[in-house]
Amino acid sequence: MSGTGAPPAGATPERPSPGGPGEGVAAASGADAARAEGTGQPPPCLLEVRSAGKTFGGVIALREVSMRVRAGEVTCVLGDNGAGKSTLIKILAGVHAPDSGQYLVDGAPAAFTSPRDALDRGIATVYQDLAMIPLMSVWRNFFLGAEPRLGRGPFRRFDVAGARRTVREELRSMGIDIRDVDQPMGTLSGGERQSVAIARAVHFGARALILDEPTSALGVKQAGVVLRYIAQARDRGLGVVFITHNPHHAYPIGDRFLLLNRGTSLGEYGKADITREELTALMAGGAELEQLAHELGRPARPRR
C-alpha cells in the first residue's frame, strides 16, 4: 500500500503552528492518558470499530470486527496473509468506509471521505514502503510535502537550517541516533528508516499511529530497534495500532491483541488474559500445528 494523497514519508499532515489544533489535541491526549494512569481509570478511547464489515464484490474482507485503541496503549492486530489486516488499516486511515458497523473517533461517529480527513483528526499511518525517496537526505524526507518556509507571500524560501535543526532535535528527543541528517535516506538500515517515519508522525502531531508490518522485513536486532521506538510513541500518550503477523514481536510491546482470521475476529484480549504461547496457537490453529508436527515427524530408526 502506497501513498494516499497525503504527504509521504509516513503519511502525516502538515505541522500545525504552535498552539494550533493538531498540537493541542496531541498534548491533550497525552495529558488525558497521564491523568487516567494516576486515577486508575482506563485511558481515553481514541478510535473504536464496532462490528465493522467490508465486502469487495463477492469477497468478504471483514465481517463483524470490533476493536478499541486507547491513548498510551499499543493495540496489536495479528493475522496471516488474507486475514483482513490491510482492509482494517484502510478503514482506520480513511481509505475505505465500512459497509456495516461503526467507526468512532473520540467516541463520536466518523465518516471519512479520504485519508486527509483522518490525518486532520491526528490519525497517521506508516505503510510498509514508507513512501520515502532513497536519494534524498533524511531531513528532506522528514519534511517532504510539509516544508517549513521563511518570509511572506509567494516567494517564501525553504528554511533549510531550521529544517535540519528540527530533525536533529526530534530524532534526539526520541533517542534515535542518526549519524548525519544530510545522508541519503537509502543509506539507513530498515529499522532506522522506520524510526524516522515514526518520529515524523509524532512531530506532526499524530494522536493515533497505525504501523503496517513495520518489522516484517527486518532482522532480530533491527526489529528490536523499531519496537523500542513504538514504546517511545506509546509513552508520549499516542494510541498505537501495530499490524503484524509475528506474535513474538507483538507480545512484548502490546497491551491489547486483536486476532483476525479470514476477515473475522478470533477475539480481542488484554495482555493479562493471554500468554505468548496461547497467542501463537490461536494465530496458527493449535490442532493444525499438532497435525503438521505429526506429519513432519520421522519415526525413530532402529539401532543396528
Key attributes of the depicted protein:
globular; disordered N terminus; 10 helices; ABC_carbohydrate_import_ATPase; transport; four-stranded antiparallel sheet; nucleotide-binding; alpha/beta; Rossmann fold; 304 residues; Simple sugar transport system ATP-binding protein
Tell me the name of the CATH homologous superfamily.
P-loop containing nucleotide triphosphate hydrolases
> What is the number of helices?
10
Indicate the percent of residues in helices.
Answer: 25-40%
Termini gap: 58 Å
Assign the CATH class.
Alpha Beta
Task: Describe what you observe in this structure.
The chain is an alpha/beta fold and 304 residues long. It has one domain: Rossmann fold (3-Layer(aba) Sandwich). The chain contains ten helices and twelve strands. A six-stranded mixed sheet has the order 6-9-10-3-11-12, sandwiched between helices. Helix 6 runs parallel beside helix 7 (220-235). The radius of gyration is 21 Å and the shape is globular. The termini are far apart. 42% of the residues are buried. The model is unreliable at 1-31 (pLDDT under 50). GO terms for molecular function: ATP binding. Residues 24-38 have a biased composition (Low complexity). Keywords: ATP-binding, Nucleotide-binding, Sugar transport, Transport. Residues 1-45 are annotated as: Disordered.
